[in-house]
Amino acid sequence: MNQDLDKMTLKELRDLRAKLDRAINSYEDRKRREALAAIEEAAREHGFNLSELTGAKPRRSGTVAPKYANPQDPTMTWTGRGRKPRWVQESLEGGKQLDDLLI
């Protein structure tokens, strides 16, 4: 094998390294999923789910309803979370209050 590597071009070596990295990541992900499935199955056999045993809070799913709308274009909305959209910033700089943009 060592002699085969010595005959490979730099591009071939880099391609081989990329393939190896993908194979290693795939293997690790697969083993992690298998371990998690085994742990979840063991918890179910004892009448629990994994979040009950680990104290993890269940993930909340769904979307947050918009709280603010652009007066010039009501289709442009913002939930009030995260970074302010440009239209909110411009409205505030123009003298409006955030309460003026409430839906």
UniProtKB/TrEMBL annotation:
Domain DNA-binding protein H-NS-like C-terminal: 58-103
Residues covered by region (Disordered): 50-91
Compartment(s) where it occurs, according to its Swiss-Prot or TrEMBL record: Cytoplasm, Nucleoid
A Pfam short name: Histone_HNS
DNA-binding as UniProt keyword: yes
UniProt keyword annotations, A-Z: Cytoplasm, DNA-binding
Main location: cytoplasm
Presence of the UniProt keyword DNA-binding in the record: yes
Domain of life: Bacteria
Transmembrane segments: none
InterPro entries: H-NS_C_dom, H-NS_C_dom_sf
Alphabetical list of PANTHER family matching this protein: DNA-BINDING PROTEIN STPA, PTHR38097
Entry similarity comment: Belongs to the histone-like protein H-NS family.
Name of this protein: H-NS family nucleoid-associated regulatory protein
Provenance organism: Paracoccus fontiphilus
